[in-house]
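Morning run. Coffee first, then this:
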Amino acid sequence: MLIENIPELFIDDSRKKPDVFVHDFRMTTDIVKSKVNLRMNMFSFLQVGRKQIHFAGTSVAVNKDQSLLIKKGNCLWTELLDTENIYYCKLFFFSEKILREFLKKHIDGSPEHKKEVPFFIIENDHYISSYLNSLSTINDYPSLLSDSFLSVKFEEIMLYLIGKYGDRFKSYLQSLIVEEASPFREIVERNVYSNLKLEEIAFLCNMSLSTFKRYFINEYKVSPGKWLQEKRLQKAKVLLEQGHLKASDIYMEMGYNNLSNFSTAFKNKFGFSPKDIS
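And here it is:
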């Protein structure tokens, strides 16, 4: 199963990186499951059909009466047609930069907020229907599809949803802000679920393996081998429990070169083998 990088998949000029971007997504064939690397936070305004999304530790399903605000990151999408064999949603992507500008302008201070799930369910209503109609009208006038104009539409829907959901929505918006990690942490955590060896991750950090291990223990207070194995096996357990994937589908993604080594490590960690999960 190929990984789809979104929204780049929908942008004609790959060199263009807009802060706001709207795409009409239509289909007439069920997409049973697709791997998605969502590079920007995104509204998915579902208008026809059904959608289910699996994240690392949770999942959500919505119908045409609901829409979603989804945090950027990796997920599995399942999109299903309605009874008339149609699926349609309007996708509205926005960068962290424009979100930060909005929060600075409209939300006073930086109150503490708990870690949120990676989605927010929106109940569709007459205002949202009118809003989506206005976005469709904009598509008829390409000269209006500028970042500045779409930024106004972004601000409009954000203010409406704050009015509709109050502090709960504000808290979720704040949870979308990803705090800057150190370059070392960024490289390590970007490769947690790769099949790179420690010396290869050390190379990417421009360090020898011994220097990398010392730096890692100072940063994470645990050895890199133990930390990586813990992260990868915990994610593997979550993926297997969701019931959509088998050990043979994920062992390489979890950093193991063969299924046998993965199964042994998994059983040593949890006391049962991957195939025992039903």
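The chain is about 40% helix and 25% strand. Good start to the day.
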